[in-house]
Amino acid sequence: MKKKPTAFSTVFNKVPHFASNWCQLQNRASNFPNGKANLLFSPLLLPLHLDPKQTTPRRAALQQQEADRVTNLPGQPPAKFRHYAGYVKLRPQESKALFYWFFEAQDGASRKPLVLWLNGGPGCSSVAYGAAKSLVLSLFVAMTFGLLLTKSLGTKAPVGVGFSYTNNSKDLHELGDEITASDSYDFLTNWFKRFPNFKTRDFYIAGESYAGHYVPQLAQLIYDKNKASSPDSYINFKGFMIGNAAINEPTDTLGLFDYAWSHAIISDQLYNQINKECDFKQSTGNLTVRCADHLRGFMDAYANIDMYSIYTPVCTKSLGTRTYPKLTGFWHKLPSGYDPCTEEYVEKYFNRKDVQSALHANLTNLPYPYTTCSVEIKGWNDSPDSVLPVIQKLLDAGLRIWIYSGDTDGRVPVTSTRYSIKKMGLRVKEEWRAWFHKSQVGGWVEVYEGGLTFATVRGAGHQVPVFAPRQSVNLFTHFLAANTLPSSRF
């Protein structure tokens, strides 16, 4: 059953972090643990040859690949791996096109799995958050796996998100979880036509924040369509991984306040008043006046720190111009990100004409600038309270599912995720214990009957790869290899 978002709907708008020194990040990535031998990478690049004997459709696909290849990203030294960017039209009869950025595995690309990364929002860019902000992880993944980043749907109108577009302004008023899953599935099927050499690869989806909705919903659509698919349309889907994810609104909301109180951000008095006046167990849509007043006090408590990473500094350069959030229809522009001053650098970089040209982006000259998250989207037509039934269905289907949580995030805190998982009533298979990254505790992990793994990442905020890149790589490689996280120092 569809449910329209409420006044307390979980909407996540964050600023990205862009690393201008691409070469330095590649060197950092080379120091990450490689795990199993099939995760090793080297500077070897396999050139793409166009065989004149190949059939016309495949040859056309390879030609389009070459047209999408990024060969010179302004301001950055040459990459040691192939990457591609461009547009994929969703359906012939429509005018929607999604922008993507694909990083190919550096060594043995034909044997490595493919990962689709999605970001939340709704209305935030996976390129900004997956590539620019989490570039350390992206570079490592690019050298060991195939990483595919897509962006949220925008429109060629006064309102839009990133470089993706539609020429029909009506599409903007039909945005929601359901259409996002449908568009993402059509994007994938058409992307595989352009990159048929990746069609049979083990395929995974990963994401964070409101992608706690996007990822399971897309996973369910792929699973359902695979049942009746032909060999040409079958997607070799194996599982997904979501981090600091919105998955069950009532418990997500309860955990939000419990976390703030337990970390000494709000007072006993405010905490008790919220619990007394706000009945989030029943509904987050019909808030009383007193409850709304207490929620404003809650937001005021976070006004001078970063809600997404409670122990890291905020940007002092923009304090004079920053407008802190008030409780209106959506929770837009909450305090955000590690070193949030870099948001302006990301937007300035991706608005450069030479950068757009290198990425084959903004070919239609969109009438609005590139932004990391859209501030123009005012409505979201469907957003169910919970995706726990979807997660349970896919666990029962035998898919690999990991949920992780950076433990210094105040927006979708570890407390919320633990409450949400508890709601599923799963039996514990491997009890709560520490997992290690080299000689230090990387976080804690618990494994449940049926295949669900829940892991925390110690000291990481909302976007875990930014704050704990090495632990993130360790976590990610163990997920893809279906290996248990290390239980001892090494």
Descriptive notes:
The chain has 490 residues and is α/β, with parallel strands linked by helices. It folds into two domains: 23-246 and 347-490, Alpha/Beta hydrolase fold, catalytic domain (Rossmann fold, 3-Layer(aba) Sandwich), CATH 3.40.50.1820; 249-346, no CATH class. The protein is built from 15 helices and ten strands. The chain has helices at 22-29, 56-68, 126-133, 135-144, 177-194, 211-227, 249-262, 268-277, 289-302, 343-350, 353-358, 388-396, 414-423, 464-467, 469-481; strands at residues 83-89, 97-103, 114-118, 146-150, 203-208, 237-243, 400-406, 428-437, 440-448, 452-457. Strands 1-2-4-3-5-6-7-10-9-8 form a ten-stranded mixed beta sheet, with helices on both faces. A hairpin with a 7-residue loop joins strand 1 (83-89) and strand 2 (97-103). The longest helix is centred in the middle third of the chain and has 18 residues, at 177-194.
